[in-house]
Design a protein that fits this description.
The protein is an alpha+beta fold and 155 residues long. It has a domain of 105 residues: Gcn5-related N-acetyltransferase (GNAT) (Aminopeptidase, 3-Layer(aba) Sandwich). Helices cover 26% and strands 30% of the residues. Strands 1-2-3-5-4 form a five-stranded mixed beta sheet, with helices on one face. The protein is globular and about 55 Å long. The N and C termini lie far apart (45 Å).
Length: 155
């Protein structure tokens, strides 16, 4: 039997037809069918998205792994407390469902809003990562934040 490659990817417009099928085709999801659902709900759900959070497994060259998270919000949703809450929720999820001890996030020194968001989400500034990114024709520093399993959740 051939191995199948599985990957996560963003939801795109073409996926809405599949979600509509799950909402309207009895038995499609097997024994978990609980009745008909609103077939337009998936479109409404994703139409109201304010942005996204992401996470990736990383290491420092050894056997110990950690999560690295990121977030992006549409401009009209910034400044409403959504970003830090989403980051805190993602950390709580990762600490609940995985055994890893550390979650980290990086940001640009000029991104004051993201720095505040990370602190509100329970992260601590670890320091400056010097010349870590080549942007706009020059090498730029970054700030590294982390949250450990033993740190209190802000939620």
């Amino acid at each position: 039997m051939a191995e199948h490659s599985i990957r996560l990817r963003p939801v795109v417009e073409e996926d809405l037809a599949m979600f509509r099928r799950f909402a309207t085709e009895p038995g499609l999801i097997g024994l978990d069918w609980t009745g008909f659902k609103d077939p337009q709900e998936p479109a409404r759900r994703y139409a109201g998205a304010a942005g996204f959070v992401s996470w990736a497994l990383r290491d420092f060259g050894g056997f110990t792994k950690h999560w690295e998270i990121g977030t992006a919000l549409l401009p009209e949703w910034r400044g409403h407390g959504i970003g830090w809450r989403a980051q805190a929720m993602l950390c709580d999820y990762l600490f609940t469902h995985t055994p890893l001890q550390r979650i980290q996030a990086g940001t640009h020194p000029e991104n004051i809003a993201e720095q505040r968001s990370l602190v509100k989400a329970g992260f601590q500034l670890e320091g400056v990562v010097r010349a870590c990114e080549f942007r706009d024709g020059r090498w730029c520093d970054g700030y590294l934040y982390s949250r450990l399993r033993s740190d209190p959740s802000p939620r």
